[in-house]
Amino acid sequence: MIEKHSYTNPSEEQNLAHVEAGSDDDGFGFAGAETIIDENGWRQRAPIPASETVRLALENCEQLCGLNKLQIQELLKGEFSSYECFESDGGQYRKVVIKYDVKDKT
């Protein structure tokens, strides 16, 4: 037997169709980041450059225990670059370089 309750929702009825539908990137919970539609039809954050990914990871770990906060801050002041590299045997790879603590030659 199903018991009935006496609760009445005090809120107004809302049309929330706009929450899931849409063609632009506004309001999708990606903090203003560009988005793409994946092969399954789901909205995803668009890929960002590898160097930016490493920089964001360093920013996220700045306060972690076991890491030297000052060293992480010094790395974050550096210049982040990513390169596509080709080897003489035909292999190829990508690498991220952080140029930091640069001293002028005097």
Note the main attributes of this structure:
elongated; two-stranded antiparallel ribbon; alpha+beta; 3 helices; two-stranded antiparallel sheet; 106 residues
Order of helices and strands: HEEHHEE
pLDDT < 50 runs, ≥5 residues: none
How much strand?
Answer: 15-25%
How many strand elements? Answer: 4
* Distance from first to last alpha carbon: 88 Å
Main sheet attributes: strand count, strand direction, barrel closure: 2 strands, antiparallel
Radius of gyration: 24 Å
Quaternary status: single chain
Arithmetic mean pLDDT:
84
Overall description:
With 106 residues, this protein is α+β, with helices and mostly antiparallel strands. It has a domain at 50-99. Helix content is 23%, strand content 21%. It contains 3 helices and 4 strands; from the N terminus they run H-E-E-H-H-E-E. The chain has helices at 17-20, 50-61, 69-76; strands at residues 35-37, 43-45, 79-86, 92-99. The strands form 2 sheets. A two-stranded antiparallel ribbon has the order 1-2. A two-stranded antiparallel ribbon has the order 3-4. Strand 1 and strand 2 form a beta hairpin. It is elongated, with a radius of gyration of 24 Å.
Summary of the model, kept short:
By secondary structure, this protein is an alpha+beta fold. Helices cover 23% and strands 21% of the residues. The protein contains 3 helices and 4 strands, in the order αββααββ.
Summarize the helices and strands and which ones pair or pack.
Elements: H1 17-20, E1 35-37, E2 43-45, H2 50-61, H3 69-76, E3 79-86, E4 92-99
Antiparallel strand pairs: 1-2, 3-4
